[in-house]
Amino acid sequence: MSTEQLQPPQPPPVKEIMPGEFGVFLKNKGISSMPLGLDADNVEMLELEVKDLPSACEFLKSSPECNFDFLILMTSLDLKKGFQSVYSLHSTKSKKSLRIKITVPKEKPLIPTVSHIWSTADWYEREAYDMMGIIYTGHPNLKRILNPENWEGYPLRKDYIPPVDALNGPHPVTETSYAEKTLSHPTS
After folding, report:
1. How far apart are CA 165 and CA 77, in angstroms?
2. Which of 92, 88, 112, 111 has the alpha carbon at shortest distance from 100?
3. What is the pLDDT of residue 104?
4. How far is CA 16 from CA 47, 136, 140, 161, in A?
5. Which of 55, 101, 52, 56 is nearest to 81 (CA)?
6. CB 139 within 8 A of CB 115
7. Domains delineated in the chain
8. Which of 24, 89, 134, 158 has the fewest CB atoms within 10 Å distance of its CB?
9. What is the pTM of this model?
10. Between β-strands 110-112 and 33-38, what pairing exists: parallel, antiparallel or unpaired?
11. 63 and 89 in contact (C-beta within 8 Å)?
């Protein structure tokens, strides 16, 4: 047996993702970002530091080179590494788009608001707060938008356990004994 046959196969070398047009633009403005490549729609994706979000968004909206005048969508995710807000920007003039990702730790989910830059962020941030528990600092009216104000928990978090009420039966993990007692007795 040769030594080549004893060697495990080597993984292909990791190709470094180079900054795209808007990553370079932000770098020239003094804002560092991590390039994430292109998404399935061939849109550049960047990850920014939390502290850089407001100034980066101001540059991306107001600079004639970018002119991202439209926040198409903002959503949130519950990932292993933390909570993430994803901003989908579009320029109605150049027809170019960009996705920005911000990740924060689950213990301290604070992200500065961009509602003063794009008014549509107002409701998107309220939804992400209501459903995921991300706090958008500086938001003018950060309160629940889908659930009642007295709702406990954040329904889109992976660790969320819904309450037992008229709409939700007992939770199969935390209330098994309750379910067994109430469901095993036939009603007369």
Report:
1. 26
2. 88
3. 98
4. 15, 32, 40, 40
5. 101
6. yes
7. 13-181 (3.30.460.80)
8. 158
9. 0.81
10. unpaired
11. no
